[in-house]
From TrEMBL:
Annotated signal sequence range: none
Database matches in SUPFAM superfamilies: PUA domain-like (SSF88697)
Segments forming a coiled coil: none
EVE domain location: 2-134
Protein name: Ubiquinol-cytochrome c reductase
InterPro entries, alphabetized: 5hmC_binding, EVE_domain, PUA-like_sf, THYN1-like_EVE
């Protein structure tokens, strides 16, 4: 199974709001980047991703699970983009900051380090394990 990273500005959609959405989760809409679109098209139900607060906080704060595969985004009038649905799985006991990720040699190739603007990103198995451990999920 693949792993992912979903970025959201907490003022727009926060981890607390994701948790409050409950087991039914929510759609991950509004992505308007073709590379991020391709990432979402590749996602399978059951795959997990990091929930990353961008701009404010700049940290991985939780883990989400894909609960519905790629489908058309109702907020896209052009009809070119889609979305997936995700639900909150668990919070990281310790948020993992972007600074901590950049300081970790084992994460130097992580997409977040090298293309921090991309809103949906793949995460390798090694990166997944390392960030989870840094966040207290060992």
């Amino acid at each position: 199974m693949a792993h992912w990273l979903f970025k959201s500005e907490p003022a727009t959609w926060s981890w607390d709001q994701q948790v409050a959405a409950g087991e039914g989760g929510t759609d991950w809409n509004g992505v308007r980047n073709h590379l991020a679109k391709q990432q979402m098209m590749a996602m399978q139900v059951g795959e997990r991703g990091f929930f990353y607060h961008s701009n404010e906080g700049k940290a991985v704060v939780g883990i989400v699970e894909v609960i519905r595969p790629y489908y058309p985004d109702h907020t896209d009038a052009s009809g070119r983009f889609g979305m997936v649905d995700v639900r909150a799985v668990e919070a990281l006991p310790r948020p993992v900051s972007l600074d901590a990720i950049k300081a970790e040699p084992g994460l130097k190739e992580m997409v977040l380090v090298n293309n921090s603007r991309l809103s949906v990103q793949p995460v390798t198995e090694a990166e997944w394990r390392l960030v989870r451990a840094m966040g207290g999920l060992g």
